Amino acid sequence: MFLYFKRYTPFLAITAILVLSLIPGQFQVRTGASRHLEHFAAYFAVAGVLALAWGKAPLKLFCVGVLLMGLAATMEIAQVLVPGRTARLSDLAASDLGVASGLVAMWILLRLLPLMNRAMAPRPRAKP
Q1: Cα–Cα distance measured from residue 23 to residue 82, given in angstroms and rounded to the nearest whole number
Q2: How far is CA 39 from CA 42, 113, 115, 125, in A?
Q3: Is residue 107 part of a domain?
Q4: Which domain holds residue 103?
Q5: How far, in Å, CA of 30 to CA of 33, rounded?
Q6: Of residues 76 and 53, more confidently modeled
Q7: pLDDT (0 to 100) of residue 2
Q8: How many domains are there within the chain?
Q9: 125 lies in a domain?
């Protein structure tokens, strides 16, 4: 089951970012949260999915971060060409902050999970 998550979920998450970033303004559906919070949450989630799928090695996470930040910049620039959309530096900053926060959160989580599993494992009973 985890193999399917590892293979397909990252591509679905990136596809969702592409579609949501390039949809014309008239078809956009807002959550009611601020624009910056939406950007932060979307990229936080995608960074988390990629970190869970592709491992906890710091170099891999760094590469994922660079690629996602590049994707965020590319999507902001591409929005200039989409009717009803605008490119904003503040949106890019929120997206990049979401990427960095998501990667750091998942890196910490992936480091803590083995420790928590070890702490919660049943201990052998002492023989009388």
Answers
A1: 7
A2: 5, 28, 32, 51
A3: yes
A4: 2-23+34-115
A5: 8
A6: 76
A7: 63
A8: 1
A9: no
Residues contacting residue 96 through CB under 8 Å, at least 6 positions apart: 43, 69, 72
Which tens digit of pLDDT belongs to each residue from 47-72? Answer: 999 998 887 788 888 999 999 999 99
Q: What is the CA radius of gyration of the chain?
A: 19
Dihedral angle over CA of 33, 100, 53, 113, nearest 10: -100
The verdict on residue 122 lying in a domain is: no
Report d(CA 69, CA 100) in Å as an integer.
9
In whole angstroms, give the CA distance from residue 35 to residue 45.
Answer: 16
H helical segments located in the chain: 2-22, 35-54, 58-78, 89-120
Q: What is the mean pLDDT of residues 98-102?
A: 96
Look-up: residue for tokens 């970190």?
Answer: 51
What the block records as the tokens of 57 is 């090695």
